[in-house]
Amino acid sequence: MGSEQEPADKAATIDPTFRNGSLTAIGVVVGFSLSFLSTWAAQPGPWNRTDIGAVLLICIGILLQIRALAGMLSIRSLQLASYERLIRYFLTGIGLAAIGVGIAIFADVLGFTTTALHK
């Protein structure tokens, strides 16, 4: 009597300012990832299987990062469940891109490739 309860179906939300910071961070990382891939693709020389595997992981990672960025632009990203899902996409994308870069670096160090780190 006297106390009103919020509807049970009302989803938890996050503060728009908090979301905006995440949006900025995601945008910066996506830009860096695309720049890295662009620089690597511009390198002369033949590609081999190691390069293709690394680039595939980097590209999938970038696609997940872009998916997270696009999702953050939606008003739905203010809902906690949506925000957390988009952050998982982003972190998975960073992880895959980092693994791809790591493969490229180790392949270059071990002499399996001539493309990844040379100009």
UniProtKB/TrEMBL annotation:
<keyword id="KW-0472">Membrane</keyword>
<protein>
    <submittedName>
        <fullName>Uncharacterized membrane protein YgaE (UPF0421/DUF939 family)</fullName>
    </submittedName>
</protein>
<keyword id="KW-1133">Transmembrane helix</keyword>
<feature type="transmembrane region" description="Helical">
    <location>
        <begin position="87"/>
        <end position="107"/>
    </location>
</feature>
<feature type="transmembrane region" description="Helical">
    <location>
        <begin position="54"/>
        <end position="75"/>
    </location>
</feature>
<feature type="transmembrane region" description="Helical">
    <location>
        <begin position="21"/>
        <end position="42"/>
    </location>
</feature>
<keyword id="KW-0812">Transmembrane</keyword>
